[in-house]
Design a protein that fits this description.
By secondary structure, the protein is α/β, with parallel strands linked by helices. The protein is built from five helices and six strands, in the order βααβββαβαβα. The longest helix has 16 residues. The N terminus is likely disordered.
C-alpha cells in the first residue's frame, strides 16, 4: 500500500512551509487554515477506489502517524470549485478510513484561484471540517 508520499507539496503562496508542526501565531496555518497545532507531515498521494473503479490523486495529504489530519485539492483553472470537488474529498476521506487510517477528523481543504460555486459555499457553511481557500483568503 504505497499511497502516501511524504514529500513537500507546493501549495499556493507561502503556506507550505508553515503547515508543519507548531506554527507561529501569525503564520498562514493559523490565519488561513485556523489550525494552530499544525498538520503533521505534508505530502501528496493516491488511493485506489475499487468500487468506483478509479484511482484518486490527492494534491495535499497531511498525516501525523496513521492519523490523517488534512486532505486537499488544489486547482488553478478557470472553473470555480463546486460540490463535486467536496464529494470527491469526502469519498477519499472514507476510503482512507476504510483502509484503517484515522481520517474521520481530517480537515478537507479546497484551494481555488477562481473561487467557489454558491452551492458549495452554502453546503459548507457551519462545517468546521472544511476550509475553502481562494486567493483573497490565502493572501488577505
Amino acid at each position: 500500500m504505497n499511497w502516501f508520499s511524504g514529500r513537500k507539496v507546493d501549495l499556493p503562496g507561502p503556506a507550505d512551509s508553515s503547515l508543519r508542526r507548531q506554527p507561529a501565531p501569525h503564520s498562514p496555518t493559523v490565519r488561513v487554515f485556523e489550525r494552530p497545532e499544525g498538520f503533521g507531515d505534508i505530502g501528496f498521494g493516491a488511493v485506489q477506489d475499487n468500487p468506483g473503479r478509479c484511482r484518486h490523486e490527492i494534491d495535499v495529504l497531511a498525516m501525523a502517524g496513521r492519523r490523517v489530519t488534512a486532505i486537499g485539492e488544489a486547482k488553478a483553472t478557470l472553473d470555480r470549485r463546486g460540490l463535486a470537488d467536496l464529494e470527491r474529498l469526502e469519498r477519499i476521506k472514507q476510503l482512507l478510513t476504510d483502509l484503517g487510517h484515522e481520517a474521520t477528523e481530517a480537515v478537507l481543504l479546497l484551494f481555488s484561484t477562481t473561487g467557489f460555486t454558491s452551492d458549495l459555499e452554502r453546503a459548507t457553511q457551519g462545517r468546521s471540517d472544511i476550509r475553502l481557500i481562494d486567493l483573497d483568503r490565502m493572501y488577505g
